[in-house]
Automatic annotation (TrEMBL):
<comment type="function">
    <text>Is required not only for elongation of protein synthesis but also for the initiation of all mRNA translation through initiator tRNA(fMet) aminoacylation.</text>
</comment>
<feature type="short sequence motif" description="'KMSKS' region">
    <location>
        <begin position="301"/>
        <end position="305"/>
    </location>
</feature>
<dbReference type="InterPro" id="IPR001412">
    <property type="entry name" value="aa-tRNA-synth_I_CS"/>
</dbReference>
<keyword id="KW-0648">Protein biosynthesis</keyword>
<dbReference type="InterPro" id="IPR033911">
    <property type="entry name" value="MetRS_core"/>
</dbReference>
<dbReference type="InterPro" id="IPR014758">
    <property type="entry name" value="Met-tRNA_synth"/>
</dbReference>
<comment type="similarity">
    <text>Belongs to the class-I aminoacyl-tRNA synthetase family. MetG type 2B subfamily.</text>
</comment>
<dbReference type="InterPro" id="IPR009080">
    <property type="entry name" value="tRNAsynth_Ia_anticodon-bd"/>
</dbReference>
<keyword id="KW-0436">Ligase</keyword>
<protein>
    <recommendedName>
        <fullName>Methionine--tRNA ligase</fullName>
        <ecNumber>6.1.1.10</ecNumber>
    </recommendedName>
</protein>
<feature type="domain" description="Methionyl-tRNA synthetase anticodon-binding">
    <location>
        <begin position="376"/>
        <end position="509"/>
    </location>
</feature>
<feature type="domain" description="Methionyl/Leucyl tRNA synthetase">
    <location>
        <begin position="8"/>
        <end position="364"/>
    </location>
</feature>
<feature type="region of interest" description="Disordered">
    <location>
        <begin position="492"/>
        <end position="521"/>
    </location>
</feature>
<dbReference type="InterPro" id="IPR015413">
    <property type="entry name" value="Methionyl/Leucyl_tRNA_Synth"/>
</dbReference>
<comment type="subunit">
    <text>Monomer.</text>
</comment>
<dbReference type="InterPro" id="IPR023457">
    <property type="entry name" value="Met-tRNA_synth_2"/>
</dbReference>
<dbReference type="Pfam" id="PF09334">
    <property type="entry name" value="tRNA-synt_1g"/>
</dbReference>
Amino acid sequence: MGSATPFYITTAISYPNGAPHIGHAYEAIATDAIARFERLDGRPVYFLTGTDEHGIKMVQTARNQNMTPAELADRNTPLFRAMAEALNISNDDFIRTREERHHRASQEMWRRLEANGDIYLGRYAGWYSVRDEAYYDEGELSVTEDGTKLSPQGTPVEWVEEETFFFRLSAYQDRLLAYYEANPEFILPLERRNEVLSFVKGGLRDLSISRTTFNWGVPVPGHPEHVMYVWVDALTNYITGVGFPDEADPKWKFWPANVHVIGKDILRFHAVYWPAFLMSAGVEPPRRVFAHGMVLNKGEKMSKSVGNVADPHDLVSTFGLDQLRYFLLREVAFGQDGSYSEEAIINRTNADLANDLGNLAQRSLSMIAKNCEGRVPTPGALTEEDRAILSVADGMYAKAREAMELQGLKKYLDAVWAVVAEANRYFASQEPWAKKKSDFARMETILYVTVEVVRQVAILAQPAMPESCAKLLDQLGLGEDQRSFSQLGESGRLASGLSLPPPAGVFPRYVSPEEQAKREG
Ligand code: ME8
């Protein structure tokens, strides 16, 4: 079992400048699976998500739509909440950066940086990308054929010059490098860590942290003509969410966060600026920043102008929620970019879920319903094969736990499905259907062993597919208190004689509308 220490996990907070897309859904689902895994493993978990309502991007998008940024945020933030609900995300709170509690926390953060001597007034002249809400050095930019300057993320930059407050980021280079060295798993995956290390080793410039050319943001304490640079307040959301600055808040025990789950495009803010701000404010930095990859549409970057942006609600209604969740988590290693396509989702749905797990459960449970009066049979003496498959199932938790120490979502699911594959081989080679006449007691043992393996798979797969696994666990007659990871292995073995509900399929095959029409016609 994992330790019962608190576990605090967050997603990035999304800009509500449009509706959520599959990239947002991916991050929410992955973070949710990690949160659920830790909860099932007995840890008190706090899971925060929300929206980032400030910044010039919000101002410009709103202006283009003839609205105020507040109206734009009020229109779109509910769509992010609705997405979380539709995806069965188990967040404990949803923060909006316009909330009073967040303004209070951000202003306190500012005061602490100032009190520590890290803020000074100056003049900024340099490049800014509104799309990234980021400042870039000349040397980081590329130039297109028509002379447009682009950020390393490929977004256009503009020249800005204004009076601004600076944060003395340059003073934190050594402390950051020391922190990375002392915490080798602070930045995951490891490839990303090297990028950050070389960026910081290259030298850090002081960061412009206020703007005066618009007023949509958190006012700077004592200087209301300045609003905070959006990333200063956005990052602070992670401590607002657990009660900062009120350290007597019972939620404060969750700080430092165990994992900030974010996309690789915003790693620099999380792995460089954020720990530096916290060090300056005298607050412990987070324990880990995990940068996931981008979800691409058939290998292409999604963009509104190309028209290939997938709506998570459409994918859920076409393929099913748990099918989508499973696909996103299993298809690529967490941390790598991943391509989604309808064919790939259908393939996973039909091969891994309907065939491998669904059929195994359905076949064993139907045989029990038909031949064993719907009760979990009593196993006889175990053969070598029985013991081997049970031991593989009992060993699954340790592998999953090890993978999840580093948020290895795919690796954890690979470990579970390796057991599913093994169980299918066992079932096929033991031929319980043939034993029905020749050796009824042997058939009972095979069925017992098979459903016991299914039980453990269903418990361990809950973080990825909460709803479907709950149905499968219902089929196995297990109560709410029999579904946590403490029930894995030998201690939670299915009780013989337990009466099971009539079996019903949990993982349907995906049938395309055309196939469906053909069948019906
Ligand atoms: O960056 N695939 O907000 P955001 C995977 N407000 N992930 C993607 C993605 C894609 N195609 N597109 C975006 C922001 N994301 C800031 C964050 S946190 C203090 C402030 C991810 O709405 C992206 O990497 O642009 C980020 O982690 C999250 O979605 C929100 O992106």
